[in-house]
Design a protein that fits this description.
elongated; three-stranded antiparallel β-sheet; 417 residues; five-stranded mixed β-sheet; alpha/beta; disordered C terminus; 8 strands; 48% helix
Amino acid sequence: MRGTIRETLWELMQEEVGILCGTSHRPELGAICRRAGSNDGVMYLNGSKEAIKRPRVRRRQVLGGELELRLQTYEQARATKNIEEEVMAMVEEGVSSRGCKRLTEDAMSASEISRRWALHSAQRLDELRGRSLIGEEYFGLMIDGVFLTRELVVIVALGITKKGEKKILDFSVGSTENYEVARELLVRLRERGFKVKGRLLAVLDGAKALHKAVKEFWSDAVIQDCIIHKERNLHCYLRKGDHAECSRLVKRMRLAEGEAPAKEGLAALRTFLKGRNAAALASLDESGERLIALQLLNIPATLNVSLQSTNLIENAIHNYRRQTRRVTRWSTKGNQVERWSATALLWVERGFRKIKGHEDLPYLLAALARPQTPATDAAAGSVPASPLRGAPATQETASTPPAAASVGTIDREQSVH
């Protein structure tokens, strides 16, 4: 393959020489260009530098003498922009600029790679924040922060569509995970067209600043506090001998399906902490029923794994750290943090899959579409009911989307008559 490319390039260069100098061995009278043999040259292809032969052409000057004439075909073949895409892909995968220099056989210097990376990552930033959010239908939002230094944090927003797909929405940079930085992020999401039909499901790590910012934009939002964050927090207050029982009770809450079992699990955990540590009890009461907000919607427990904790966005942040681990000095004077963050988050997004239990999302969407008050809930008869509402659900009903379940009911009624 490489040999074929070399031969093709040689033929193209010879064709250009023929246009400049005329037929070989038959120079035209008064021609200003002449053939001058060949020399060693290089071309850049598939992320590396290749040695080739290049023809030489000399041009006569008006005042006498000759100058070397660069062939346009050769100049295009030896342009480093031919491998820029491959080199930038190497940097995105975590290869250092010096490593890229070695892999490309010194096709680009480390400083040149760094300069081009700055331009490339700036384009990635524009790409991320330039994406319109109007076309997608979202129901869920996760927000979490990643500390790059003691006084530098990146707050990331991840959206979940009605199909169960995850999308990186945007991020904001600040000194702490505070309300102003979170609010700036949500304002930008609104401007770009982020909307939800019905109530928003927001999964947060329990930070008051994030809770306040979300409630400002979606006053009726269903906020689920991360149950894993709370478990770690409780362990900080309890002695090691109580960790196992605390984790067992938290797991009981996580596996509960429906409102009643979840409340029983929360009450059992509260009773356990009440006799152990007052600070741990206060921490639990701070979140209260926000730890079981998902179960209060009476939806299948298949969605608990994905939506009862911030694991989805924390996994993204873990991979974000991996992509930015080579940066040893963060600067806020320019847009370095924004450029690297956008590039890393877009790279992370390429590996996203649908959330676990996405087949049962119709139940959750129906629950979020219903008003919170029981009176108006009863009036909304056209909204499909969750299998946990009313009469006990069979195993078949629990795994069937609402639309399919309603059709089956009509068929059974017709068959009776």
